[in-house]
UniProtKB/TrEMBL annotation, chain A:
Domain Dihydroorotate dehydrogenase catalytic: 11-289
Name under which the protein is recorded: Dihydroorotate dehydrogenase
Gene that encodes it: pyrD
EC numbers on record: 1.3.-.-
Pathway: Pyrimidine metabolism; UMP biosynthesis via de novo pathway
Entry's family note: Belongs to the dihydroorotate dehydrogenase family. Type 1 subfamily.
Source organism: Allonocardiopsis opalescens
TrEMBL record, chain B:
Highest taxon of the lineage: Bacteria
Upper taxonomic lineage: Bacteria, Bacillati, Actinomycetota, Actinomycetes, Streptosporangiales
This protein's name: Dihydroorotate dehydrogenase electron transfer subunit
Family recorded in the similarity comment: Belongs to the PyrK family.
Gene Ontology molecular-function annotations: 2 iron, 2 sulfur cluster binding; flavin adenine dinucleotide binding; metal ion binding; oxidoreductase activity
Length: 326, 297
């Protein structure tokens, strides 16, 4: 059975629903050594800031069970080098490119977004709202509906009207449904969730925090149930807003969970560190998973988990085909 | 810019053997073996497909052979859960391996005198280097050390391959009592060294670099920073390195290293972001200097 994997995300249509999540695929060069990056649904870049940034001190990584904590601190070359060196290369490889933007304050987000607006070939801009607000320390933009909406509005105002804006949300802070609503009202056409969740490990040998930055962001399968719940709740509240589901997706089955919860596509982050070709494998596994359930179009599975119990008639797995008796 | 493209493969384990306190695993990995140059490493996924350990583990390549299309051997000591799982691997198990990774040891153009310094498992990548250097007509002298004799890796081989082999152990059970760096100055003098290659913990590499500098010879050192991917994606493995242009950058040791010129590594600042590093807090781009805004390669 042939399956149509086209991911329809409102203004953005992708050939398949598996994206490389921000900060886990660099700007594509490293992954291109292992496979043709044009085969990704899209590549979301490392979050770009106005200036070059050296990030946080090491150690930046601590493994935990089924998860990892990172405190990279958005090390990156800045928007100028990105536009000169990275973006043209990505586009020359035929990669669908979504550019993630970050900032310490609303003005920086807008500044970076404005620079991107003139660059041809970008499929969307993703707003990484998990940056600490320069004024409030500790608090991220994503943690407060008003702060998130202000950033999104400034990015929407800064880019060409036809360039879709994705708001990337996080589960800590204010209720994610409220933040989602605020971002959509501010002009975000799509939502992505979730970013990493703050966490901490303590090294029992040195008796000190295991990361130089004390706290880090938890990612990987350990956060998947949290991500699925976020997608589920936001899809229930805003059924017409396309969602990119991110958080611990390692297999096609994990991706199906996200789609069932209401995501129209998935982002793969941490899994790429262990398996550079994870995104392609997950694509294949989604296709197999849909075929097994006799679903011919990806879109047909989006949000299915929201239907009341007993209404599952549409879905049959080959192994458990419905049998009628007289 | 990297010239050698790494591969990812499911490699059958050929042999697992004990070498004193170390384990040596040989896998069949033709793509890795054929591209390998000394100083490069492999990154191994540990714990099986549904593992709760998400970061790959990095190991220097100790040896490659043409058997079975190409085999790769790495040597390790058990540290934590990942290496403990690896030590339980048996012949015919499959290991998910990426490699060869990183920038190899630069080789001298002329047949010069080379001193190879290895602390603990750091001796492992020095053997393929020694063979290459010998083939180029270089003189090779070894300085190997560890806490005790059992943990000095490759003492026999060093005696065989090297012009001389000098040992240093902290407990005095083999060779000099002390550290490899205590033995190094004499070896540099006796061998009339033109270059020093070093692998080991950062404090050792810092001292190796300082000693080499005192004798006016270059040091090429291979660092071991914590890694998750080994291929340049995650940015966990950075350390401050001064470029030829005098600018300090936080470079990824998995792709820009693991081998660096010793004097370019800011050893005293590892674990910090030096205030003058490119993109450090408060750092400002000089308007006339667009080239310096490159981070990494
Ligand atoms: C380029 C490179 C080459 C290496 N070559 C060798 C080698 O040839 N032989 C050898 O015995 N060891 C080598 N190491 C160190 C080896 O990678 C670690 O001992 C191993 O990752 C420990 O894993 P674990 O799960 O047993 O330990 P745990 O302590 O449980 O590991 C927890 C986490 O910390 C990381 N980690 C812990 N110690 C180190 C370390 N010293 N360096 C890097 N990451 C670490 C692990 O990768 C993991 O993510 C090398 C490291 C690097 C970066
Ligand atoms: C090392 C690392 C770097 C990341 N960098 C970014 C980033 O620059 N911008 C961003 O929006 N998210 C970033 N993320 C978050 C991921 O895109 C993703 O939302 C999160 O890790 C959860 O997905 P995962 O479990 O598949 O990794 C990063 C995550 C990791 C692990
Ligand atoms: S280990 Fe991931 S970038 Fe170096």
């Amino acid at each position: 059975m042939s399956v149509d994997l086209t991911a329809r995300l409102g203004p953005v249509e992708l050939a398949n629903p598996v994206l490389a999540a921000a900060g886990c695929a660099g700007a594509g060069r490293e992954l291109a050594q292992f496979f043709d990056i044009a085969r990704l649904g899209a590549l979301v870049t490392k979050s770009i800031m106005a200036q070059p940034r050296s990030g946080r001190p090491t150690p930046r990584l601590a493994e935990s069970a089924s998860g990892m904590l990172n405190s990279i601190g958005l090390q990156g070359p800045g928007v100028d080098v990105f536009l000169q060196r990275d973006l043209p290369w990505l586009l020359s490889r035929g990669a669908r490119t979504i550019v993630s933007v970050a900032g310490a304050h609303t003005g920086e987000y807008a500044e970076v977004a404005a620079r991107l607006s003139d660059a041809p070939g970008i499929s969307a801009v993703e707003v990484n709202l998990s940056c600490a607000q320069a004024t409030e320390r500790e608090r991220t933009f994503a943690a407060e509906p008003e702060a998130a909406a202000e950033v999104v509005a400034s990015v929407v105002a800064a880019v060409r009207p036809d360039l879709p804006v994705i708001a990337k949300l996080a589960p800590d802070g204010a209720d994610i449904v409220e933040v989602a609503r605020a971002c959509v009202s501010a002009g975000a056409g799509l939502l992505a969730m979730i970013n990493t969740i703050p966490g901490m490990v303590i090294d029992t040998t040195t008796l000190r925090p295991g990361l130089a930055g004390s706290t880090g962001g938890l990612s990987g399968p350990a956060i998947r149930p949290i991500a699925v719940r976020c997608v589920y709740r936001v899809h229930a509240a805003l059924p017409d807003v396309p969602i990119i589901g991110i958080g611990g997706v390692q297999t096609g089955q994990d991706a199906l969970e996200m789609l069932l919860a209401g995501a129209s596509a998935v982002g793969v982050g941490t899994a790429t560190f262990r398996d550079p070709t994870a995104a392609l494998r997950i694509q294949r596994e989604i296709e197999e998973g849909l075929a097994e359930r006799e679903i011919s179009r990806l879109g047909d599975i989006v949000g299915l988990a929201h239907r009341p119990e007993g209404a599952a008639g549409l879905i049959r797995t080959r192994s458990r085909r419905a049998v009628a008796f007289d | 810019m990297r010239t050698i493209k790494p591969v990812q493969m499911r490699s059958p384990v050929l042999t697992v053997r004990r070498v004193d306190t170390y384990h040596a695993i040989t896998v069949v990995a033709p793509g890795v073996a054929e591209r390998f140059r000394a100083g490069q490493f492999v990154a191994v996924a540990v714990g099986g497909d549904t593992s709760s350990m998400l970061a790959r583990r990095a190991f220097f390549i100790h040896d490659v052979k043409p058997d079975y299309g190409g085999t790769v051997e790495f040597v390790f000591e058990v540290r934590g859960r990942g290496t403990s799982w690896l030590s339980e691997c048996r012949s015919r198990d499959l290991l998910d391996v990426t490699g060869p990774l990183g920038r190899p040891f630069p080789l001298p153009r002329d047949p010069v005198n080379c001193v190879l310094v290895g602390d603990g498992h750091g001796a492992s990548p020095l053997f393929p280097l020694a063979h290459t250097l010998r083939r180029r007509g270089c003189r090779v002298d070894f300085v190997l050390g560890a806490a005790g004799a059992q943990r000095v890796f490759g003492a026999l081989a060093a005696r065989r391959v090297g012009e001389t082999a000098t040992f240093a152990t902290r407990d005095g059970s083999l060779g000099l009592r002390g550290r490899v760096t205590d033995a190094l100055p004499q070896v540099i003098e006796d061998a009339r060294a033109d270059v020093v290659y070093g692998v080991g913990p950062l404090p050792v590499l810092r001292t190796v670099t300082a000693i080499a500098a005192k004798y006016g010879v270059p040091a090429q050192v291979a660092v071991e920073e914590r890694m998750a991917c080994g291929i340049g994606l995650c940015m966990t493995c950075v350390l401050p390195v001064v470029g030829d242009d005098g600018v300090t950058r936080m470079l990824r040791s998995c792709v820009d290293g693991p081998v660096f010129r010793g004097e370019q590594v800011r050893f005293d600042d590892v674990g910090t972001i030096p205030f003058d590093a490119l993109g450090a807090p408060g750092w400002k781009a000089r308007p006339d200097d667009s080239a310096s805004t490159e981070i990494g390669q």
